[in-house]
Design a protein that fits this description.
Largest sheet: none
Number of helices: 11
Helix content: over 70%
Distance between the termini: 26 Å
Number of domains: 1
Radius of gyration: 20 Å
Length: 237
């Protein structure tokens, strides 16, 4: 399955490269705009591959009291930040590459910052589960921004190639359509995570004390899992 996704992305990327080459040679923008919907499919397929903070998103939403509409907002926030960071790095590449990028398509400094902040959120979730603290209204969006600080590598490749060919606008337009595709996949992850939590909570709602224990345990375990993932990924790098 993973290999199929990789080959599928490669096919679209090569087609995109041809479109950008045509534009740089004075080609038709209408033809490029007609190709743009492929960016949605490209982004959705790319988000199915490892990474993109799917595990963090699912773990956080499973352990929080976020409803479906806010869960979609969290996934959209993550997607927008994830793609936008890659665009900004490409556009500001001269001052940022030597500071943030350790290898092509990666930004180690931003990755460590993102994971460190997520670890702090996980620790906060554990503390709240133990102390029965209240949930903050915009916490989910904050998690989305923190998880999205890790830039999308394929967006970075697309933007760098478009800039090198003198058509940065084409890269930005394709990045926007990719963002829609990434958000679509992450939204599915968000909805499934929330529905799973709601089904589990519904099962225990007739036993108030047990319900409280279970809901706090889910949040605590989700917080521990986020801390573990954050620390493990930092150490792994």
């Amino acid at each position: 399955m993973f290999q199929i996704l990789v080959e599928f992305q490669r096919t679209i990327y090569l087609a995109l490269a041809d479109q950008i080459k045509l534009l740089s040679a004075g080609g038709d923008w209408l033809a490029f705009l007609a190709f743009l919907p492929m960016g949605v499919i490209f982004g959705a397929a790319h988000a199915l591959t490892p990474g993109h903070s799917k595990a963090v998103l699912a773990t956080y939403l499973a352990g929080s009291d976020t409803n479906v509409s806010r869960g979609l907002l969290v996934s959209a926030t993550l997607s927008i930040t994830h793609v936008t960071m890659a665009v900004l790095i490409a556009v500001l590449s001269l001052p940022l590459v030597s500071i943030a990028l350790g290898s092509v398509g990666r930004a180690p400094v931003l990755e460590d910052v993102s994971r460190g902040l997520l670890g702090a959120i996980g620790a906060w979730m554990v503390w709240r589960a133990v102390k029965h603290g209240r949930h903050h209204r915009h916490e989910g969006e904050v998690v989305g921004v923190m998880a999205g600080l890790i830039p999308c590598p394929l967006t970075l490749f697309v933007m760098t190639f478009a800039i090198s060919r003198g058509v940065p606008g084409a890269g930005i337009l394709f990045a926007i359509t990719m963002m829609v595709g990434v958000a679509s996949t992450l939204s599915c992850v968000a909805v499934l995570s929330i529905l799973f939590r709601e089904r589990l909570v519904h099962f225990f709602e007739n036993w108030p004390r047990l319900f409280d224990i279970v809901s706090r345990s889910i949040e605590g375990m989700a917080g521990i899992a986020i801390v573990f993932v954050a620390v493990w990924q930092i150490l792994l790098r």
